[in-house]
Task: inverse folding
């Protein structure tokens, strides 16, 4: 199935809202360093949560509402590894059980007194939270690649995208817009090279491999490969919210940008970007250049996503007319919509990998 046909398929009809709510998925809610001795308020898919460090310093996540009198638990404090409400002092452990009610002489534990709890994991310097409360996770969070690989350096940034999860993912993995919105940084509007694109679709991912593209003429391309060469370029979407961009130019230049996206609400997405790279020039020279350029690119994308979101709200609906050049967007939407329809703890149905090929001018 071509991207054009996929855009017309029942999973992504024109005019339908692309917003999804994903059960049983891991999302980053903060960097490890952000979660200290105080409760931290966060929102996931429109649901207010509170993070805190419980017994042994392990992260915990609860619904940010005390079951007693509807006060945000994030206004409380951590006492002996338990979260204490700031109104009447009820205390909750990492599992959401009520462990103390000041002044009550009887048993404190009762199901109605529990706060909804969410599974958490701390890895790669981030705190991940499972999107379905009160269940045992059926999977583990994504692992960022190359963090400990010899010869590689890493830059981390968090940016806010004023758009839906789908719009933010598609924007990150969309090639044609780079010649216009980011003109001169990657590519230019002049199309002089025909390349082949191989699109591979699986049950929980879709990947595009761009074959035969010379080193992009823009500023970023010249830094990545001063000597020129042919690019090995992959764009990948991994369920539920990972956008991965990989460039190899020659034997010495390798860039991997892995962005874990967290849907704060229907039209607000946090992007936790981890950029890992190996280059033939000293990394200490590159980092001061790479960070401001990356943030400039993110700011351009943020502005265009805000315009897109504002237009959708102004018209009250979305409209998508896709061509073969919209390589990954329709496939991402189909995967997200399929996952949003899954019953709790029901994995995506396995299906054989599909491969299509197309031509693109860059």
Result:
């Amino acid at each position: 199935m071509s991207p054009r046909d996929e855009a017309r398929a029942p999973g992504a009809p024109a005019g339908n809202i692309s917003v999804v709510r994903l059960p049983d998925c891991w999302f980053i809610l903060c960097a490890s360093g952000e979660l200290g001795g105080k409760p931290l308020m966060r929102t996931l898919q429109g649901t207010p949560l509170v993070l805190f460090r419980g017994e042994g310093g392990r992260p915990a996540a609860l619904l940010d509402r005390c079951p007693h009198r509807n006060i945000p638990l994030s206004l409380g404090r951590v006492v002996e590894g338990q979260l204490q409400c700031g109104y009447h002092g009820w205390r909750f452990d990492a599992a959401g059980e009520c462990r103390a009610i000041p002044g009550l002489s009887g048993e404190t534990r009762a199901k109605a007194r529990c706060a909804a709890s969410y599974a958490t994991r701390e890895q790669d310097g981030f705190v991940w939270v499972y999107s379905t409360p009160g269940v045992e996770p059926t999977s583990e969070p994504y692992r960022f690649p190359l963090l400990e690989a010899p010869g590689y350096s890493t830059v981390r940034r968090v940016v806010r995208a004023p758009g839906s999860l789908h719009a933010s993912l598609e924007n990150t993995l969309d090639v044609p817009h780079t010649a216009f919105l980011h003109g001169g940084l990657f590519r230019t509007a002049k199309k002089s090279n025909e390349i082949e694109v191989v699109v591979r679709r699986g049950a929980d991912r879709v990947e595009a491999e761009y074959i035969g593209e010379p080193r992009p003429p823009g500023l970023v391309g010249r830094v990545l490969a001063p000597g020129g060469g042919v690019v090995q370029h992959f764009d990948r979407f991994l369920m539920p919210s990972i956008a991965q961009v990989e460039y190899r130019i020659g034997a010495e230049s390798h860039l991997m940008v892995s962005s874990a996206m967290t849907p704060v609400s229907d039209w607000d997405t946090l992007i936790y970007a981890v950029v890992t790279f190996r280059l033939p020039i000293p990394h200490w020279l590159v980092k001061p250049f790479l960070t401001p350029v990356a943030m400039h690119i993110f700011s351009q994308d943020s502005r265009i996503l805000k315009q897109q979101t504002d237009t959708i709200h102004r018209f009250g609906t979305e409209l998508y007319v896709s061509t073969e050049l919209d390589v990954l967007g329709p496939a991402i939407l189909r995967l997200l919509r399929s996952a949003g329809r899954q019953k709790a703890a029901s994995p995506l149905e396995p299906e054989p990998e599909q491969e299509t090929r197309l031509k693109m001018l860059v």
